[in-house]
Design brief:
Distance between the termini: 19 Å
Mean pLDDT: 84
Strand order of the largest sheet: 1-3-2
Shape: elongated
Structural class: mainly alpha
Number of helices: 4
Helix content: 55-70%
Number of domains: 1
């Protein structure tokens, strides 16, 4: 007869190791492609000429090639690609900032998930720290969903300010409902963890 408390989770060492490996690989990919790569691009270490960003347009783009000699080009109709032939340090930083910001937040999520996985090894996920971690993940995901589009808007505005394409680029923030709903779902899960922790404490108090 199994006498383990209801809140104990059957989680063997193989499951725990596999999940840690998946989280580790995911964190490494995020660190490499979304954090380190943009940082190296800002520093000019990659040695690649030309950089750009997809932007919404007010109409069909009419500036192409060198863009009047300032090294900027814009091509597209309702949505286009603004490119810089030889971006300077400030332009590289503005281009990389949104991606770098997203990468850092995703690394925070990966770290919090890793801490939660460690508690699964003990078979007891319903601990106060996990409730706080899941709540922090929800806040991070919501922050990514809201702040990333705003950061795209701000940096795009600065990139095209005073250039030949300024009047054609629509500087606006485009929000997606998917990440917002995901953040709210994780927030609901955090409440489940909190209630589970409370029920566990009540059950132990009756013993």
């Amino acid at each position: 007869m199994n006498t383990s408390p209801w809140y104990r989770v059957e989680w063997d060492r193989g499951d725990n190791t596999a999940l840690r490996v998946v989280l580790g690989v995911g964190a490494a990919l995020v660190a490499g492609f979304a954090v380190l790569s943009p940082l190296l691009g800002v520093l000019g270490v990659t040695g690649q000429d030309g950089a750009g960003r997809t932007v919404p347009l007010r109409g069909a783009a009419t500036v192409a090639g060198s863009g009047g000699g300032d090294g900027i080009a814009l091509n597209g109709t309702s949505q286009g690609e603004v490119t810089f032939a030889h971006p300077d340090l400030a332009q590289r930083a503005l281009l990389a900032l949104p991606e770098f910001f997203s990468g850092v937040l995703l690394l925070i999520v990966a770290y919090l998930l890793y801490r939660i996985v460690r508690t699964l090894a003990a078979g007891d996920p319903f601990v106060p720290d996990n409730a706080r971690r899941v709540r922090a993940i929800a806040v991070t995901v919501l922050g990514l969903a809201i702040l990333r589009p705003l950061l795209d808007m701000i940096t795009t505005g600065q990139l095209v300010l005073g250039t030949a394409v300024e009047d054609q680029v629509s500087v606006e923030a485009t929000f997606s409902s998917g990440p917002v709903l995901l953040g709210l779902l994780i927030a609901a899960l955090a409440e489940v963890f909190r209630r589970g922790t409370q029920l566990r404490a009540d059950a132990e108090g009756l013993v």
